[in-house]
Design a protein that fits this description.
This protein is α+β, with helices and mostly antiparallel strands. Helices cover 32% and strands 19% of the residues. It is globular.
Length: 398
């Protein structure tokens, strides 16, 4: 049976026959370790003299955005991350300066440590990262999962983190934005409550569901609700939902729209699979990624991976998946052109492609610890979901 939280984010199927070992992940932060992997070409281009400074950022108990905020407040230098890592893990990732020869000293404060690795001729980008290496411990599994052998049959779903985990609201906010319902987007961001959230947070969100309570809510907001604080301050001052939304960081505003596109992708994969489409083996006419991550038509190359369109204002219709995507968009009352925001083009989503299945390499199990490497953009929780088959994913640490 598919848990409700899965269907809430567009995931309605399992693809492996493995019965599931149960258990929990992330009981402790060091139960879930993530290491970014840079391409060899990028590593070979490191200089020790000048250019854009790059660092290895290690952290635990804090997410990437807040770690970079800490560094900015400490040294006054903005650093850019290649990918976002959440707080409930021990992570090692690469960040770089956006200005030449602007560097900060090595730093450590218990939660984060920053170590300079050298300089690059241009700022690092996500293209310099080929993937992530994961080492994940399962606590109290009901059976050993050392015999799990279907790591090559897992769909490349967007995971719980993309949608807010305990509070799966990001795609709902994104849909409201795409439909130009800015007031609803603000209401959802402030007051959407989840059964998985804490009692304290739920109480505050109920308070924020009434506009007349905004002043009172602002006084008691916990520090971690920084986005909500920004929205409340702007709404109290101007009362304009669209203007208030514009005050949020650009990365966050884009995240909402991208999350909605991610939700549609998850639904597309499930609908196609349920319809009987083969999503593990590309066919004539399919769009694929080759081993160098280059997009093109299927050429009977065993190194190619099937790619499924992502909906955006430049959505590519000429694939076998348009049948499913068109039905989803019709039900959602959304058009691909809606993903272009004329007044705020910086949050527009163009669309593109994403591989249908994860490329999971170097997979191994040692007792109750799974280790594997995933291509950039894939979610380890989606691999663990197939291994564990949890009845309550969030209760199981997802």
């Amino acid at each position: 049976m598919i848990p409700k939280i899965d269907s809430d984010i567009g995931i309605t199927v399992y693809t492996t026959k493995y019965p599931g070992c149960g258990g929990k992940i992330k009981v402790h932060n060091d139960d879930f370790k993530v290491f970014e992997v840079l391409s060899q070409k990028t590593l070979d281009s490191i200089s020790q003299s000048e250019g854009f400074a790059a660092y290895k950022l290690k952290k635990s108990g804090i997410d990437t955005n807040h770690a970079l905020e800490t560094i900015f407040h400490k040294f006054g230098v903005h650093l850019k991350a290649l990918g976002l890592k959440d707080s409930s893990a021990v992570t090692e990732q690469f960040v770089c300066s956006l200005g030449q020869n602007k560097s900060v000293p090595n730093y450590s404060d218990g939660k984060i440590s920053l170590e300079k690795i050298g300089f690059f001729k241009k700022p690092l980008s996500a293209k310099d990262m080929v993937g992530n290496r994961f080492v994940i411990k399962v606590t109290d599994p009901k059976q050993s999962f050392s015999d799990f052998a279907e790591h090559d049959r897992i769909f490349n779903f967007y995971g719980y983190q993309r949608f807010g985990s305990k509070r799966p609201v990001t795609h709902l906010v994104g849909k409201a934005l795409v439909q130009r319902r800015f007031g609803d987007a603000i209401t959802l961001l402030l007051s959407f409550a989840s059964e998985h959230d804490s009692e304290e947070n739920t109480k505050i969100r109920k308070l924020m569901s009434d506009v007349s309570n905004y002043s009172e809510a602002l006084k008691i907001l916990p520090h971690k609700m920084d986005l909500e604080r920004t929205i409340l301050q702007e709404m109290l001052e101007h009362g304009d939902p669209q203007r208030a939304f514009q005050k949020l960081p650009l990365s966050i505003r884009r995240l909402f729209v991208d999350a909605y596109s991610s939700f549609i992708f998850n639904l597309t994969v499930c609908r196609a699979f349920e319809y009987g489409e083969d999503l593990f083996h590309p066919q004539d006419g399919d769009v694929c990624y080759d081993k160098n991550a280059k997009l093109g038509k299927y050429e009977m190359d065993p190194g190619q991976q099937l790619a499924i369109p992502m909906v955006g204002h430049s959505y590519f219709k000429k694939t076998r998946f348009d049948l499913h995507i068109s039905k989803i968009l019709q039900n959602e009352l959304v058009n691909p052109k809606d993903f272009f925001f004329k007044e705020t083009q910086e949050i527009s989503a163009e669309g593109g492609f994403r591989t249908a299945s994860v490329l999971c390499s170097d997979f191994s199990v040692d007792k109750n610890i799974a280790s594997f490497t995933l291509q950039r953009g894939s979610f380890a929780t989606m691999v663990m979901r197939e291994i564990m088959k949890p009845d309550d994913p969030l209760g199981a640490g997802f």
